Amino acid sequence: MEANDSLVIKAPKKSPLLPRLVVLAFAMVCGVYICFICLKQINTNNGGSTTSNKFIDVKVVHQLCNSSGIEQWEIPLVHYPNPVTFSREECVCNPVRYFAILSMQRSGSGWFETLMNSHINVSSNGEIFGKKDRRANVTAIVNVLDRVYNLDWFSSASKNECNAAVGFKWMLNQGVLEHHEGIVDYFNRNGVHAIFLFRRNLIRRLISVLANSYDKSKKPLNGTHKSHVHSVVEAKVLAKYKPSLNASTLLAELKSVDSRAARAIGYFKSTRHIVLYYEDVVGNRTKLKEVQDFLGLPYRELTSRQIKIHSGTLAEQIANFEEVQTVLKGTPYESFLHQDYGEM
């Protein structure tokens, strides 16, 4: 190579760094914008639907909660409510069972419910379908049931967020028989436990009905009507009233009550249910253990402050006892006249 030949060194090409940064920044901005639009769209779609949000939340709760301690057959019967009115906090994974006490007036359901509510993990919310608008049709009934079982129904019996069972008492003449198809469908879809509570001795029930009606009109307890009492003194005052039974309609009335109970049990035979009689619960407290087992509850000794009102023989409680005795002679109801369970 000659001396005058010079090396030619080519300068490196400039890296287009700045344009690349600009493109990257633009892509990031676009990504953030797209995510924002998507989130906004989801919120818009779900914002007006509490049910949809609740459904999603319940699914999430079910996924998060460990159900390994629950038998396979029990899974449809346990629930993890996600109330909209409060937070279950640390009890969010405590399974809850739904129940309804199906009964008739003056059959011991009030007393039985106080026993249930003495359990620390049970909330039975009383006779919630006493108001006609709540049972006007199946839709109205379902709306009430949804609130109760989602723990959004508040009453004096409502417990804390750690409920293990929630329910109420429901009289057969409060839409149960009229709308039984829709109610049975709801019970089966939602795993509701039906607890039937009836009174075997329909004569004693009738006396209680008439005495309660008398108390409503006359109010012998200082001008106050009381369906249930908590002192012996009050019970003695109310027990003084001796009704006369209508002998001409007595048999038909007793048969009608029997028929109503049988129809109810027949309608709900496809549901998970148990049938109890007041006399059995009074005379055998192991029945209360059966109820707790039925609901999958931890066993507790159940108590009530209510005092029995009518006790002793029916001859002491019916003003026209001899006439009633004649009417019922030779019928399936005659034995009721001589039974004494020391009932309330």
TrEMBL record:
SUPFAM superfamilies: P-loop containing nucleoside triphosphate hydrolases (SSF52540)
Keyword Membrane applies: yes
Transmembrane helix keyword on record: yes
Keyword field: Membrane, Transmembrane, Transmembrane helix
Regions that span the bilayer: 21-42
InterPro entries on file: Nod_factor_sulfotransferase, P-loop_NTPase
Signal sequence region: none
UniProt superkingdom: Eukaryota
Entry protein name: Sulfotransferase
Source organism per UniProt: Linum trigynum
